[in-house]
Design brief:
A hairpin with a 6-residue loop joins strand 5 and strand 6 (about 60). By secondary structure, this protein is mainly β. The chain is globular. The strands form two sheets. Strands 2, 4, 5, 6, 9, 10 and 11 form a seven-stranded mixed beta sheet that branches. About 0% of the residues lie in helices and about 50% in strands. The chain has strands at about 5, 10, 20-25, 35-40, 45-50, 60, 70-75, 80-85, 90-100, 105-110, 115-120.
């Protein structure tokens, strides 16, 4: 079965950094595009970043561009999100998501999420 397990969240001060990890299993990780999606309290899901499987191309939401970096280690079946210069508005539950190859801009599997809180 497909499993996605996020880790690395926590409480950080504004301007701080966190590195999130997503351990994947149950599928050929290197063959699929992967994304990070976040959801702040009382708000809907917000796409954060995507990394392609083929050429490793990366894409970012304007709100995080220049501050976050998505990467993957296919040998370790792990997805990462390096988050720098964190802002209070980055506070959310961050989810690792496997892109659905049959539907554009949709996902077929999600992890349970990891909480990121940016506060002084």
């Amino acid at each position: 079965e497909v499993q996605l397990v996020e880790s690395g969240g926590g409480l950080v001060q504004p301007g701080g950094s966190l590195r999130l990890s997503c351990a994947a299993s149950g599928f050929t990780f290197g063959s699929y595009d992967m994304s990070w999606v976040r959801q702040a309290p009382g708000k809907g899901p917000e796409w954060v970043s995507t990394i392609y499987s083929g050429d490793g191309s990366t894409y970012y939401a304007d709100s995080v561009k220049g501050r976050f970096t998505i990467s993957r280690d296919n040998a370790k079946n792990t997805l990462y999100l390096q988050m720098n210069s964190l802002k209070p508005e980055d506070t959310a539950v961050y989810y690792c998501a496997k892109d659905d190859p049959g539907s554009e801009d949709e996902y077929d599997y999600w992890g349970q999420g990891t909480q990121v809180t940016v506060s002084s």
